[in-house]
Amino acid sequence: MTPVTVITGGSRGIGAATARRLAHAGHHLALGYRRDHHTADTITAELRATGVRAVAVPADTRDPNQVTALFDAAAQLGPITGLVNNAGITSPIGPFTDLDPDDLRHVVDVNLIGYILCAQQAARRMTHGAAIVNISSAAATLGSPGEYVHYAAVKAATDALTIGLAKELAPHGIRVNAVAPGIIRTDIHALSGQPDRPDRAASRIPLGRPGEPDEVAAAIAWLLSPDASYTTGAILRVGGGL
Ligand code: NAP
């Protein structure tokens, strides 16, 4: 049976790199994204050219109805076997005391509520052998002082979600794991106001450089694969030693 995987935030960054890697492994793919139709359509065409089925679905993960529509579209490709819970945002980098309540709510809504809504749809539809990978962050254990402590706190919640769901879904044969990237070269840093953050951080990363999206995608693909059949409840750090 061909695997069918939903990737939220699949249009750019880590999500897009994961989509490319999974397409080469033969997965049919449903990519969720929020508003950048052009980028989503471009990657979807690229995936189809590899011979798999792929759809791009505008689905804001904060909205339960849009999440349901994303999973309905994925189900048209076949029984859903994988979810990469990836759509995430930060907010402007700065001291905790300057945090705007609207930015706080946005981070919680996308990175926590959105993850839970997607995991719930997945859990309702998946059967034995399926797997969920939640994209956490090294921030969950480092705390991101002076940058975005609230984001780190929400990523720690992702880890708790992973551990709890892994135990709850294990009797159904569904595995749940997390990948916790360090500092990866994507657009997320520009959106938080510091496009050069990966290069500036290089000197404090033990491997001496930021990561590339495909290096995170490799870990995600492994956790979704049968090679990880006995791995559940794991939080796999992909941070160059961070
Ligand atoms: P990115 O390049 O900024 O891409 C974010 C993706 O999420 C885009 O496809 C975007 O779609 C989508 N998205 C944003 N808000 C959404 C919403 N409300 N509903 C649905 N889709 C939404 O981000 P990234 O760096 O690849 O990050 C992916 C994940 O890795 C996030 O969970 C992030 O917290 C985590 N992470 C990243 C790093 C890093 O250094 N990059 C480190 C640790 C953890 P549109 O383009 O349509 O807006």
From TrEMBL:
Residue intervals of the Ketoreductase domain: 3-182
Molecular functions (GO terms): oxidoreductase activity, acting on the CH-OH group of donors, NAD or NADP as acceptor
Top-level division of the source organism's lineage: Bacteria
CDD domains linked to this entry: SDR_c
Keyword vocabulary terms for this entry: Oxidoreductase
Biological-process GO terms, alphabetical: fatty acid elongation
Location of region: Disordered: 190-210
Family: Belongs to the short-chain dehydrogenases/reductases (SDR) family.
Protein name in UniProt: Oxidoreductase
